[in-house]
Design goal:
Layout (H helix, E strand, L loop, with lengths): L2 E5 L3 E3 L4 E8 L8 E6 L6 E6 L6 E3 L7 E5 L5 E6 L8 E7 L3 H6 L4 E2 L3 E6 L1
Parallel strand pairs: 2-11
Antiparallel strand pairs: 1-3, 3-8, 4-5, 4-9, 5-6, 7-8, 9-10, 9-11
């Protein structure tokens, strides 16, 4: 059974750093793009970052570009999200997702989703 498991969420102070990980199992995730999304309290789900199967092509949401960095070794089924200079508005549950189709993945349509990991940034 395909499964994505996030880890690394924590409480950090403003300006701090945090690294999230997502491990995939049970499917051909090594050849699929993977992504991070987040949902803040009372807000819609937001695209954070995506990476292709080779770990070469990436895409970032406007609110995190330049501060967050997604990583993946080529063909590997684990991705990371390095989050720098965190701010209170980054507080959210962060979800990992994967889909064989890049466009569908970035749009947050369908695919496989993890259960999420909580990131809280204190001011």
């Amino acid at each position: 059974q395909a499964q994505l498991t996030e880890s690394g969420g924590a409480l950090v102070q403003t300006g701090g750093t945090l690294r999230l990980s997502c491990a995939a199992s049970g499917a051909s995730f090594g050849s699929y793009p993977m992504a991070w999304f987040r949902r803040a309290p009372g807000k819609a789900r937001e695209f954070v970052a995506a990476i292709d199967w080779a770990g070469q092509a990436t895409s970032y949401g406007e609110s995190v570009a330049g501060r967050f960095f997604i990583g993946r070794a080529s063909g590997k089924t684990t991705i990371s999200l390095q989050m720098n200079n965190l701010a209170p508005e980054d507080t959210a549950v962060y979800y990992c997702a994967s889909d064989e189709n890049w466009g569908r993945l970035v749009a947050g349509i369908g695919g496989i989703w993890g259960q999420g990991t909580q990131v809280t940034v204190s001011s």
